[in-house]
Amino acid sequence: MSRHILHVVTNVGHYDDPAHPTGLWLSELTHAWDVFAEHGFEQTIVSPHGGASPLEPRSLKFPTYDRNAKARHTDPARMALLANTASPEQLSSADFDAIYFTGGHAVMYDFPDSEPLQRITREIWERGGVVSSVCHGYCGLLNTQLSDGELLVAGREVTGFAWQEEVLAGVDKLVPYNAEEEMKKRGAHYHKALLPFVSHVVTDGRLVTGQNPGSAKATAQRVAAVLA
């Protein structure tokens, strides 16, 4: 039986200041998509409100904008998937074996408080599925509560985009909060690589998290291994 992955992308296109655009970090979706495709998994894209998911302009210049990401960016059929994503209300969590939260700074705005996404995440987790994220995607796990009222991340090992990386990227004055610190406040055991921007993945049972854009492929590979 084929596994089914639910990719979560953002609907937000700018920071608090509209003069500064942001959005989905494209390679965090495409690199993982190819890994899951190699395993023969079905894949669906959802966003907090459905519809279009704008792209982070920096993701089209960063080194992760490689042949893989560029091929998808220039493929109208592939980009059409991001022009008309599903909404959580259209989906049943029972259809998915894993959820994968992509990143880009935009997700800091619409992932944390999306109750429909929290419901899907909780149901996948409590049914024995895999919950995963890469880079800022871990913001989608900040406020997800389990049926017993406990936060999913409390007491668990996680990683995600580090504050040091925000500073080095020059966006520490633009982001709405310090995601690393917020994750720690929720009782998660946060880890990061010794060097910024290198691939780093943390696995805690069925919870798989990657630190930054360069971690997307390794994160997806780890998710596939857990599902196996």
CATH class membership: Alpha Beta
**Unreliable sequence segments:** none
How far from one another are the termini?
A: 11 Å
Q: Which strand order does the major sheet show?
A: 2-1-3-4-8-7
Tell me the number of strands: 8
The total of helices stands at: 8
Task: Describe the global form.
Answer: globular
Using the 3D structure, state the CATH architecture.
3-Layer(aba) Sandwich
Strand content: 5-15%
C-alpha Rg (nearest Å): 16 Å
Q: Given the helix and strand composition, which structural class is it?
A: alpha/beta
Main sheet record = 6 strands, mixed
Can you write the helix and strand succession as a string? Answer: EHEHHEHHEEHHEEEH
Helix content: 25-40%
Mean pLDDT: 96
What is the domain total for the residues? 1
The CATH topology name reads Rossmann fold
CATH fourth-tier homologous superfamily: Class I glutamine amidotransferase (GATase) domain
Question: How would you describe this structure to a colleague?
Answer:
There is one protein chain. This protein has 228 residues and is α/β, with parallel strands linked by helices. The protein has a single domain (4-227), classed as Class I glutamine amidotransferase (GATase) domain (Rossmann fold, 3-Layer(aba) Sandwich), CATH 3.40.50.880. The chain is built from 8 helices and 8 strands. The chain has helices at residues 26-38, 67-73, 76-83, 107-110, 115-126, 163-169, 179-185, 216-227, and strands spanning 4-8, 42-46, 98-101, 130-134, 157-158, 189-190, 201-204, 207-210. The strands form 2 sheets. It has a 6-stranded mixed sheet with strand order 2-1-3-4-8-7. A two-stranded parallel sheet has the order 5-6. The model has no long low-confidence stretch (mean pLDDT 96).
